[in-house]
What does this fold into?
Amino acid sequence: MMPMRVVSGFALIVMLTLVSLVSDEAQAAIDVYEFETVEQEQRFRDLSNEFRCPMCQNANLTSSPGGVAADLRREIYRMIMEGQTDQEIEAFMLARYGDFILYRPRLTMQTLLLWFGPLLFLLIGIWVAFTIMRRSGTESPGSGESLNADEEARLKKLLAQKNQDASDQA
Amino acid sequence: MKNLKLYLPVIGFAVLAVFMWRGLYLDSRTLPSVLLDRPLPEFELRALETGDQLVSLEDLPDEPFILNIWGSYCLPCLQENPIFMAAREQGIIPIVGVNYKDTDDAAREWLDDNGNPFTLSIVDDTGRYGIDLGVYGAPETFIVDSQGVIRYKHIGVIDYQAWDDEIMPVIAAVQAEARS
It folds into this structure.
């Protein structure tokens, strides 16, 4: 029975994966819109992917089944068919839902850290790595942590004692 | 200089802590409305009361009023209805309803069952006006001043606490403005 169960577990995973793929397809196909050109359809897909659903927040308009996302897709369709540009459609969304609607935030004072934060951290990382490497490079043994006279004397004494012990045993 | 380096991790921690502390109190559900301090968008829609006759901005009150986005399917709307009913009975402020993505029959039935706090019920069955208002789901509530400018937006249910602490002060302010 055991191998059977393993197989069925695997089958379940495969099945769930397939179901999730299929349901993505199904969701995308809820709206039936007819386009005049392939380019229009492509723009519709791109724009629906580009905007974030205000209701579900962590999904774009394409993958959100819910009310307002469907309405916004309808608006995108209408504007594409009216011949509006992507910029005009984006402006429409921004005027109503604000920056939140954009998955790719605009570059403003508020989003400066968001855009360049990772670069900042990279620079800090490079600086830290550089300082560590430079320090370990320039500091030849003994130069940085040289012993003072007392320690030197103590070391000599210990070494002498060790040599003494060794010769005693021999 | 050497001492400063020693404190770098502490400083780093402090900076992170400040950001995260702030993050704890950021409510990602309620998006700031870009329509604040902008005029209410234009519309030409039916109203439940007018049948096929269209209403527009001109049919809205000249004084400050509340614009409430609601639907018969919306449970929180049921929850805030008694507050609006009381506001109407006490004559605090006119309330205009926008029946959002609903059917007329269901809306009428809901109002009959639960009481109608609205002086006018605009029908936005397609949700198109909702998009112009930046609405993403009922209930949402706007306070509009006597100039027709949106002065406040509340997202989600208005309970007694929200009414007393958030809504009433804004109403008092816009009404005082309108009188002066």
Summary: Residues 2-24 of chain B form the longest helix (23 residues). Chain B has a mean pLDDT of 91. The radius of gyration of chain B is 21 Å. Chain B has one domain: 29-179.
